[in-house]
Design goal:
It contains ten helices and seven strands. It is mainly alpha-helical. It folds into two domains: about 70 residues, Orthogonal Bundle (DNA polymerase, domain 1), CATH 1.10.150; about 130 residues, HAD superfamily/HAD-like (Rossmann fold, 3-Layer(aba) Sandwich). A three-stranded parallel β-sheet has the order 5-6-7. Strands 1-2 form a two-stranded antiparallel sheet. A two-stranded parallel ribbon has the order 3-4. It is globular. It starts with 8 loop residues before the first strand and ends with a helix.
């Protein structure tokens, strides 16, 4: 299961800019959002941490969430074509190989809302590589997403998979902690905004500066 931003691609702030536009339009303020570190956080957590300083409670945010999503997806659909979206080295080649294997279930585990994940990946023709996912819509906290993903795997593939057979790939300390919390294999990549030494302090099972040497990544599937 892959994270998106910082792991698969870099939208060069298209997502941040779009969420700021939508939040200001719906709530009349962005609170702390312009200064908030988005890394590793789900979209619901970003909204909560941004707006609570302005007096918005969780129920206030949830009441306006449908409208917020509609405006966010609209702006993201526009902005994604204005910002340079960069797919990281080795990603396309790796996904092409994994998609062809009948012993691999290829999915997403991301803090993005489902539709924003689709918009970001579709602009690079990558969304259809993934047959399932767990998203920011499904749970507010990242550590809760593996269980959501597992239920979807069980339903789609009619198997009861063990977390020890699940690999979670991400670029932040929260991706590593999420994998460890679930008992999954953690793979950290240095393509995001977190220095390698910070990621390594979290003791991921594997670390790659990037996935340009995707053949090396494939070897861990045989372990």
């Amino acid at each position: 299961m892959f994270d998106i931003d910082g792991t698969i691609l870099n939208c060069n702030s298209a997502g941040r800019a779009s969420l700021i536009e939508a939040t200001k339009e719906v709530f009349g303020t962005v609170g702390r959002m312009e200064k908030l570190d988005f890394q590793g956080k789900t979209d619901p957590v970003i909204l909560q941490e941004s707006l609570q300083i302005m007096g918005y409670k969780q129920e206030d945010i949830e009441k306006n969430l449908k409208n917020l999503k509609e405006r966010y997806f609209y702006y993201l659909g526009e902005n994604i074509h204005k910002y340079e979206v960069i797919v990281y080295p080795g990603i396309k080649e790796l996904l092409q190989i994994l998609k062809k294997r009948d012993d691999i279930a290829l999915g997403l585990l991301t803090g993005n809302f489902t539709e924003s994940a689709k918009i970001k990946l579709s602009v690079c023709n990558l969304f259809d590589y993934f047959s399932f996912g767990a998203f920011g819509d499904d749970a507010p906290m990242r550590n809760l997403l593996p269980e959501v993903a597992k239920k979807r795997i069980d339903t789609i593939y009619k198997i009861d998979i063990s977390f020890k057979d699940v690999i979670i790939i991400g670029d932040t300390i929260y991706d590593i902690r999420c994998a460890k919390y679930a008992g999954a294999v953690s793979v950290a990549v240095g393509t995001g905004w977190v220095p390698a030494d910070i990621l390594l302090k979290e003791n991921p099972d594997y670390f790659f500066p990037d996935l340009s040497d995707f053949q090396q990544f494939l070897k861990l599937l045989e372990d």
